[in-house]
Amino acid sequence: MKTTVPALAAAMLMAASPVMADLVVPNMSYRTGPYAANGIPYADGFADYFTLLNERDGGIGGQLIQVPECETAYNTEKGVECYESLKSQDPLVLNPLSTGITYQLIPKVSVDDIVLYTPGYGRTSAKNGEVFEWVFNAPANYWDGASVAVSHILDQEGGDLSGKKIALVYHNSAYGKEPIRTLQGLSEKHGFDLLEIPVDAPGQEQKSQWLQIRREKPDYVIMYAWGVMNQVAIQEAVNIRFPMDKFIGIWWSGSENDVTPAGAGADGYKSLTFHGVGQDYPLYDDLRTHVIDAGKAAGAGDQMGNVIYSRGVYAALVIAEAIAKAQELAGTPEIDGAQLRDGFEALEITPERMAELGLPDFGQPIALSCDNHGGAGLARIQQWDAGAGEWSLITDWIEPDAEILQPLIDEDSTAYAQEAGIEPRCN
Amino acid sequence: MDQLIFAGEVFLNGLMTGVMYALVALGFVLIFKASGVFNYAQGVLALFAALTLVGIQQGQIPFAHLINAAFGTSLHHFGWTVPAVLAIALTAGVMVLLAFLIEKLVLKHLVGQEPIILFMATIGLAYFLEGLGDVMWGADIKTLDVGLPQGISDAIESTTANWFGYGFFIDRLDIWATVIAAALVAALVAFSQYTKQGRAMRAVADDHQAALSVGISLRFIWVMVWSIAGFVALVAGIMWGTKSGVQFSLSLIALKALPVLMLGGFTSIPGAIVGGLIIGVGEKLFEFLIGPMVGGATENWFAYVLALLFLVFRPQGLFGERIIERV
Lengths: 427, 327
What we know:
CATH topology of chain B: ABC transporter involved in vitamin B12 uptake, BtuC
Oligomer: heterodimer
Number of strands of chain A: 16
CATH architecture of chain B: Orthogonal Bundle
Radius of gyration of chain A: 22 Å
Shape of chain A: globular
Strand order of the largest sheet of chain A: 9-8-10-11-12-15-16
Strand content of chain B: under 5%
Distance between the termini of chain A: 62 Å
Radius of gyration of chain B: 21 Å
Strand content of chain A: 5-15%
Largest sheet of chain B: none
CATH superfamily of the largest domain in chain A: Response regulator
Helix content of chain A: 40-55%
Distance between the termini of chain B: 57 Å
Number of strands of chain B: 0
Number of helices of chain B: 13
Structural class of chain A: alpha/beta
CATH architecture of the largest domain in chain A: 3-Layer(aba) Sandwich
């Protein structure tokens, strides 16, 4: 007995030690509720990528990655509860996949030294690292998306939008309202009329909005929606025979889930994206071998290659690269939140690196810095082929209009800094 | 003149939308009328029915994810598809079985309890059924196709274009919803007026104790009413699911039924229809006329404001039974 107790204690210590040193990257998911259809593939992609790194590479820099999951149900209060419970596990970074939760967490992560990574969503002006020290939203944000959509329309119209009418159909929430100021600025610059059409959540009934579109006959419709609002909007557009190739959704309105219910009518619908489509990448072969076929997938393994799954994978990849950079800078594989922030600020993902990672031409080059937490903000246009049941990329990377966006980012982040009493950094 | 013509189009579409709301409200009315229970789970019943219909139609194996996780299998589909009519009939059967189980496992144990206790039980039931639907059929968005047409009615568009110089938009799915709702209401009224079970249902609705004293089985009536409400939920699920795909937000259509019930009364089938039409037309016309002045997106809150206005003058709703308290 005398020898058993110390042996047991030693064994417990040995078992506990690696866990203490693991890198904790929680998965704030929503697998239940009205938004589960999108929450599940994203959470699966996010978790599966880290499982792949653990199984194939032994983690990052020799450290295993723990991915504890917390269900937010896309509910802001539950998201904050998740944050409070996850905090005790010393997470390095959080990715809540909800703009509402992001807004609540921004002041909290600054106090708790936790990185908040919100790719393609969240508070747009968090791109300004001088004010938002702990928040990163690379590779693109909502305002980039609005600008890229207008650039694409400009391209379609031979560079002249004067006298044209563009409708913005948006989710009547903080998220949906994000592009309004950008589009107003672009409307002044390019001379098109902007028609703002809000839809209350959840967006199951949109008859009034689409009757208005039918009456006002806009040349293009840009949509910022989420969940059921996407499927209903696309169906209503089909019903009124709005030309699908003039209907452009933000990247949150461009998954298979959004177009499939409308069937053949959705053929030609366009959306923005900040990553590649399909699963014709070497990384997916590795995922299949080491994760899906090995029975270690987070879900049923049937979502691989879907738009939202790929987005989850991409978010995990950027985080993993930032962790590797942080370990390199710190000279140790065991890093904390502040070191990860430094890793993000020194992050550089080149096309060559993406090819090494098994995702050639999947994402844009990313180079962040102390003052630029949002990257270049490029996006591409993808188009739905209903017959084949797949998305195709139809443009190269398109740059957002910095002339319009930068003053807006400066204005919004400066206002936040004054409100929160933040002294700009990076000097 | 253009505005008047547009308002006519909005009015007609409001009527059609109102029918869709009424389809959901009908299920609430049936259960409340027969048992005094406000069934919080009615929206989830519509979701569950639609999920089951698609699952049966597409030959999906229920609980496949659970089976695969437990036994390491890779089962998803039986390998067959079921014709829409047969799938609807089988789903109706599932809804009857569900009604039986709800009575057996939940309601039977709550006989004589306060209505608020029964209401709380239906909240629990809603969450349980939502989870059960998820585990049985998965959380992905499913395409529902039972052969109902969708899209603009060319006949109405060309006729109105000839009359007014502007072709009205009327969705063919909404026309079908109107026809089906009319048939459903006629069938429900005929059932309650001219069949023995229907009369028993009305007797229970009027007075539980008196109905029991003449030998009517309360438990049978509850199973029957929940079965009918389940069938009505199936119809609502088909209509709404055809528009948006079958997904978990379908349960939120219940939110659209609440103002209809407040306005039409919780105990009247015609009230649900008239209430639906008033809410549908009211919210659409308000959005058309006033919406642009206040930034739009008025429909959700305006429906409740309209219902509250009616409540002030007629607390029992337009067709509800007069509330008489004797001291």
